[in-house]
């Protein structure tokens, strides 16, 4: 499996395109600038299979409908945020003066809890990791020692919890119970910033010390 981190939009939210040996790909959090995603997929002659959303804040979903319609693929989102795609107040796009309010189509696939998912040649685990938002999830590819953590855990930081539905204690529990139990060499690919590892965050993340 290969992955490409693609910072998109005014605040550089990370989208990820992950691919396998037969050129299938999954697109995680296409937040803006759909044409950049199209260019990369076309250049590498990939076949998109699905869009996976770690959560539904505006900066993670802005290009969802363009990508979904281009490739005729389903969107996966947690049940607690399925309505956020349709509502600018919930996805917070109404707060952003330079952005048109986002009213997207409903997701085709609803994540209801922790569990295993298979899409094409990809097999991975979904972890519920709420705290930054109620329906935040992380996608763990055990065979490849990689987890896509959305805005739960960053290099040297954690997701903000001052937005509606945020909860600091819940986020710290999610990180401690779901993420820090993974092998220390696991690569953490976050919604913002650079990659890190579970070991690095256990050793150096000031928000996790003493929890």
Automatic annotation (TrEMBL):
Limits of the Metallo-beta-lactamase domain: 12-192
Top-level taxon in the UniProt lineage: Bacteria
Cofactor requirements of the protein: Zn(2+)
Leader sequence segment: none
Record bears the keyword Lyase: no
UniProt KW keywords: Hydrolase, Metal-binding, Zinc
InterPro entries: MBL_Glyoxalase_II (IPR051453), Metallo-B-lactamas (IPR001279), RibonucZ/Hydroxyglut_hydro (IPR036866)
Protein name, UniProt field: MBL fold metallo-hydrolase
Lineage, highest ranks first: Bacteria, Bacillati, Bacillota, Bacilli, Bacillales
């Amino acid at each position: 499996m290969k992955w490409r981190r693609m910072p998109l939009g005014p605040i550089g939210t990370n989208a990820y395109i992950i691919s396998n040996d037969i050129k299938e790909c999954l697109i995680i959090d296409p937040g803006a600038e759909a044409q950049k995603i199209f260019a990369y997929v076309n250049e590498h002659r990939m076949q998109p299979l699905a869009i996976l959303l770690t959560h539904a804040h505006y900066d993670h979903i802005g290009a969802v409908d363009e990508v979904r319609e281009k490739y005729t693929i389903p969107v996966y989102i947690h049940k607690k945020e399925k309505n956020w795609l349709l509502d600018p107040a919930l996805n917070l796009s109404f707060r952003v003066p330079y952005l048109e309010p986002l009213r997207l189509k409903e997701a085709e696939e609803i994540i209801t809890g922790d569990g295993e998912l298979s899409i094409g040649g990809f097999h991975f685990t979904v972890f519920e990791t709420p705290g930054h938002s109620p329906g935040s999830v992380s996608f763990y590819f055990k065979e490849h020692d990689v987890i896509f953590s959305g805005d739960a855990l960053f290099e040297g930081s954690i997701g903000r919890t001052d937005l509606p539905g945020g909860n600091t204690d819940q986020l710290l529990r999610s990180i401690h119970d779901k993420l820090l139990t993974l092998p220390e060499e696991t690569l953490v690919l976050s919604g913002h910033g650079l990659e890190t590892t579970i070991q690095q965050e256990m050793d150096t993340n000031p928000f996790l010390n003493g929890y």
